[in-house]
Design brief:
Layout (H helix, E strand, L loop, with lengths): L5 H5 L4 H8 L5 E5 L5 H14 L8 E5 L2 H13 L6 E4 H16 L7 E2 L4 H8 L11 H13 L4 H11 L7 H17 L2 E2 L1 H14 L1 H10 L2 E4 L7 H11 L5 E5 L14 H4 L1 H4 L4 E5 L1 E2 L4 H12 L8 E2 L8 E5 L2 H16 L10 E5 L5 H10 L4 E3 L8 H12 L10 H16 L10 H23 L5 H16 L6 E5 H4 L4 E6 L15 H15 L2 E10 L10 H6 L10 E3 L3 H10 L5 H17 L3 H4 L2 H10 L4 H5 L6 H17 L2
Parallel strand pairs: 1-7, 1-8, 2-3, 2-6, 4-5, 6-7, 9-10, 11-16, 11-17, 12-14, 12-15, 13-14, 15-16
């Protein structure tokens, strides 16, 4: 038994943390709000249980949801003088058990090798699908297989179970069942198992083999489960089998940070824990040790708008008021992001660039921010998969380079852009308006659309650009992304930000269609989008900037969630609601009216001209240019030449047609 001082383990805890730590025998459920010190509570509770002889150290099992969290927990426990406590993920612990028992039940054969990813097998199968379904991202198919396996659903039972759950696969159900079955057969032929199989096989082993179950239960009898709101049905069943008829179980989680339901996770096990375990101790950690009172007020308002009474209680000193800023367009918002970062790093009490994060809903929102930061010479790092590393982006750039045919004149300028658009549609199944399929398919579509938008920007800057020049533009962007500094501003999605924190957080593009995302239609889906924003808000310690733009590719509306945040605060320093940049807000406001005769005439002209020239509409004139024309209303060539984005080539080709429209609509 390690020598531990129980008094020292609880000396610096607040009353709620103390209650949780001293509840060393289960069942216990701890509702741990954001920033409430749950890792400290889990480690101290574990140490206290060992120090007070409730359980030997070797019979403790702390369950985490990631390998990184397991490593951090082991280090935390070691610092308390407990080097021998087991902290693992569900999958890691199941793997150790399967390796031990598998040979005895499979004629001495070792456990099959583990697949690093489902992607390789699934992508090969998906390429055999008919029509455009062959372009379905393997991740969407893998996610759906994971959802099915989390419920122990086999291919033959998928259709009925999915229908009962109101679940729609990323491709027609008959095709998905075929992919699912082919994947299982391919895996068997290759003598492989995947990560889901680790749990499926362990559950099956413990259900059918009482001796194996008894052996497993004899080794670990005291359980603590972190991030319990992310548990899926298969993990819950495995936990029940490990526990047996004992009740030394403590679960820790926050239902308001449930953001992975698309993988099968559910907070129902957390919220209904007391009903399933009558007599369980229930402790709520509501004191937040991370964020300023002003930031927590926004988080509390967001929950209150949903009818929740939960409130995070501030312990940190007052800080700057968070801001919600409206911009006229996307360029204005990017300029605002750059200005905010420069202000933070140059302030009398400066914030290091590495302590600043920009969080977005999907990865396709990151590259324009990268470009703005690169231009402003602000170092940044992309956390997670970079844009130019994504498969569809690499494929698109290969398509671009193939346009430089050795025997034919290579297209240039707008013709190059039109050729690239056509080849992406033919070779990669790109459809600009396609919003179907799974989340990865939508991300793929957004990324290919962004490739074309970047190409359009390059063509607008150089109307005679060729394949080599355009490829060089992309190579330069990719190099800037790769050279991201570990000390730079962090760029990542809301999902990747969970569990992290920074001194300053910027949340741009808080608009309907982005957050909540366009595909969120049901109450449950909207609730998950709200929880994503809650996670984003509670990542910030001192500074918080929220923003949206009234126009991007079309007119935008602010996220419905912002209305709740703009209400009167109950603490000093309430949120500051700011208008967009005054330099362009006035004239852009006149042009934003989609029903104005001039804007309608300009859009009709652009559509007719694009069809006549055989190019995408944005090649003729992007929305930003039409807005500038409508706001300035030039009637002479010199005045039109001064319009930002007009350019000599566009002026020569379309100038007289545009002036005819502006003169008629004055």
């Amino acid at each position: 038994m390690p020598h531990l001082d129980p008094a020292a383990l609880i000396a610096d805890l607040d009353p709620e943390q103390l209650e949780a730590v001293q509840a060393t025998s289960g069942p216990v459920v701890i509702h741990a709000g954001a920033g409430s010190g749950k890792t400290r509570v889990i480690s101290r509770r574990t140490a206290t249980a060992i120090a007070t002889a409730v359980v030997p150290a070797d019979q403790v099992f702390v369950v985490t949801f990631t390998d990184k969290a397991a490593t951090e927990m082991v280090q935390r426990l070691r610092s308390l003088g407990l080097p021998g406590v087991t902290a693992r993920t569900f999958h890691a612990h199941a793997l150790s058990q399967l390796r031990h028992f598998w040979p005895a039940t499979h004629d001495g054969a070792p456990l099959p090798q583990l697949l690093d990813s489902k992607g390789f097998l699934i992508s090969r199968i998906a390429r055999q699908l008919p029509g455009h379904y062959r372009f379905t991202p393997s991740k969407d198919l893998a996610d759906e297989i994971e959802w099915a396996k989390a419920r122990r659903i086999a291919p033959r039972g998928y259709e009925a179970e999915a229908a009962a759950a109101g679940r729609e696969p990323p491709i027609p159900v008959d095709l998905f069942v075929r992919v699912f079955g082919d994947y299982e057969r391919a895996k068997t032929r290759a003598n492989r198992i995947d990560f889901d199989d680790l749990l499926v096989e362990t559950v099956s082993l413990l259900e059918r083999d009482p001796a194996a179950a008894a052996t497993v239960r004899a080794r670990k009898r005291w359980f603590s489960v972190d991030e319990y709101q992310d548990t899926n049905p298969l993990q819950q069943r495995l936990l029940e089998l490990w526990l047996g008829d004992r009740d030394d179980l403590c679960v820790v989680g926050d239902e308001d940070q449930t953001i992975y339901t698309f993988t099968g996770a559910t907070s129902d096990y957390l919220t209904a824990f007391v009903q399933r375990h009558p007599g369980a101790r229930e402790v709520t950690l509501s004191r937040n040790y991370r964020s300023s009172p002003e930031i927590l007020e926004l988080a509390n308002r967001l929950l209150a708008a949903e009818g929740r009474r939960k409130r995070l209680v501030a312990t940190q000193p007052a800080g700057p008021a968070p801001s919600i800023r409206r911009f006229a367009d996307a360029d204005g918002e990017l300029a605002g992001i750059v200005a905010a970062i420069r202000g933070l790093v140059a302030a009398p009490d400066p914030v290091a660039a590495a302590e600043i994060a920009i969080l977005v809903r999907i990865n396709a929102q990151i590259p324009p921010i990268e470009a703005a930061l690169t231009k402003a010479r602000i170092p940044f790092r992309v956390r997670g998969q970079r844009f130019f590393e994504r498969q569809e982006v690499r494929d698109a750039l290969r398509v671009l380079r193939r346009l430089a045919a050795p025997d034919d004149p290579a297209p240039r300028g707008s013709l190059l852009l039109a050729a690239l658009d056509a080849r992406l549609r033919a070779d990669l199944g790109f459809e600009a308006e396609d919003q179907g399929g799974g989340a990865e398919a939508r991300e793929r579509t957004a990324n290919l659309a962004l490739v074309l938008a970047m190409a359009g920007e390059a063509v607008a800057a150089d109307h005679d650009i060729d394949v080599g020049g355009l490829a060089a533009e992309f190579d330069a962007r990719a190099a800037a992304e790769t050279e991201g500094s570990g000390d730079g501003v962090n760029l990542l999605t809301f999902h990747r930000a969970k569990g992290l924190e920074w001194d300053a957080v910027l949340l741009p593009q808080l608009e309907e269609g982005t957050l909540p995302i366009r595909q969120a239609e049901t109450d449950a889906e909207i609730a998950e989008e709200r929880r994503l924003l809650y996670v984003g808000l509670t990542r910030a310690r001192r500074h918080l900037f929220l923003s949206w733009a009234e126009r991007r590719d079309a007119r935008r509306r602010p996220s419905r969630f912002l209305a709740a945040l703009e209400g009167r605060a109950s603490v000093p320093g309430r949120v500051t609601v700011l208008p967009g940049a005054p330099m362009n807000a006035g004239r852009a406001a006149r042009a934003r009216d989609d029903d104005s005769p001039l804007m309608s005439a300009l859009r009709e002209w652009r559509l007719t001209t694009a069809r006549s020239d055989g190019v995408p509409a944005y090649v003729v004139a992007p929305d930003s240019l039409l807005i500038e024309i409508a706001s300035q209303r030039p009637t002479t060539v010199p005045a039109l030449r001064r319009v930002k984005g007009m350019g000599p080539s566009r002026l020569a080709r379309y100038g007289e047609e545009i002036l005819q429209i502006t003169r008629q609509e004055r």
